[in-house]
């Protein structure tokens, strides 16, 4: 069977959910000028055909925590096993198998320095099949998080975007502290961002009004945002790659801002290490990747070196469950 075909309404619904992952179908329907039943039916079809999922994601920076990108070069016989094991850990955000199947890259969100050190300096370093481990702290996000790839699809008109977009979160003066009910709520929406209030009540033991109030507080402080995950193929994004850019310090901010405007870029961040910007990009073909590197990246002032690697398999996206 061929890849499913998505039409303009499908893309509009997906972008609407990226803007507000818990938007009622009735609100989306009103903005798009269709019926509630049409939106609900299309959403069910998108779940079945391109694995669309809305997931709640925690912004670790708002909790006073650091996010890390870890690169592991290993022997070919252990790469997939290592990737699968990392995907099952609750402190990994995503896991990619790249570079001819001998390198695993994962995003980490350790909840404490102890957890970070235990993984980086103990478990991984003592695994004999792992040749090298390098850990890079993400310093500043240029694109990613609540700004998903679907926001660049232009499926919605500017007016429709304005009608669906939530107010921007307010940065708290100090790191947000979570209680047990908050943690239970975040764990539930991490598995299903559109979980019903009834399900959230059961998971937290809170009343409907308390759940609603907690959700609003977590979202308004930026601790919680929602991401739409999907199979990239039907949207012409079969070829994924990671880029490590070495940029002159004077040009770091300008290059980062430029990357954020590129439709091909799903994620870009300043990072520690010799390569001081990391980016995730998607294309229809390797030839498009070549054109992007030679024309768009090549045109940016201040870039001193570029390392690129194709993503062979995305083992885990922003969830606890490995993807196959």
TrEMBL record:
Domain HTH asnC-type per the UniProt entry, residue ranges: 6-66, 178-238
Record-linked SMART domains: HTH_ASNC
Entry's transmembrane regions: none
Signal peptide coordinates: none
Keywords (A to Z) from UniProt: DNA-binding, Transcription, Transcription regulation
Pfam families: AsnC_trans_reg (PF01037), HTH_24 (PF13412), HTH_AsnC-type (PF13404)
Organism: Streptomyces plumbiresistens
Gene3D superfamilies to which the protein is assigned, alphabetical: 3.30.70.920, Winged helix-like DNA-binding domain superfamily/Winged helix DNA-binding domain
InterPro entries on file: AsnC-type_HTH_dom, Dimeric_a/b-barrel, Tscrpt_reg_AsnC-like, Tscrpt_reg_AsnC/Lrp_C, WH-like_DNA-bd_sf, WH_DNA-bd_sf
Protein name: Lrp/AsnC family transcriptional regulator
